[in-house]
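Async update (no meeting this week)

Hi team, since we skipped the sync, here's where things stand on the single-chain job. The sequence we agreed to prioritize is pasted below, unchanged from the tracker. I ran it this morning and attached the output directly underneath so nobody has to dig for it. Comments welcome in thread, and please keep replies under the output.
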Amino acid sequence: MRNNLIPAIRLTIVCSVFFCGIYTLAVFGISKLAPENSSFTKSKSGFYETVGQSFTSDKYFNSRPSAVGYNAAGSGGSNKGPSNPDYLAEVQARIDTFLVHNPDLKKNEIPSDLVTASGSGIDPNISVQAAKVQVKRIAKVRNISETTINQIIEQQTEKPLLGLFGTEKINVLKLNLALDNLK
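Output:
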């Protein structure tokens, strides 16, 4: 028994030191390399927003749809498959609504992230393409040049981590706050 107990205690101590100390510090150090803790944005109310929000006014960039009504307490996808008739009707309704507010676009020009919810249902980001297809509408409503809005999009674009991990994305809240700060 003693032959088994001593090595087990040693292994427990080594694993505790490694996983509670060294590993934790390594993960913490790597997290500091992430660009500006990009998923956290301080809103006007002083709270840090980490989830998507609904922007429906034509003067703002639209967020990605939410399967859970932007409720972080109940995050999750719809769990409906791509051939589910209810899901297809929901996506078609989102397409129709988007086209009403963006009459210069055709259905095939709408990026999928503007009409489909993410797996979490609360994604705060959209693709650069999703932002760019909304430029004409926002420029017209705000009476701002499209060039100015495209510059804001470029400034707010978050690049992939280390240029390798992920895709370019834009936090919609940050983008809309930048629009509001123009004047």
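Quick observations from my side:
The longest helix spans residues 2-31.
Strands lie at 41-42, 48-49, 125-126, 157-158, 169-171.
Reply here if anything looks off.
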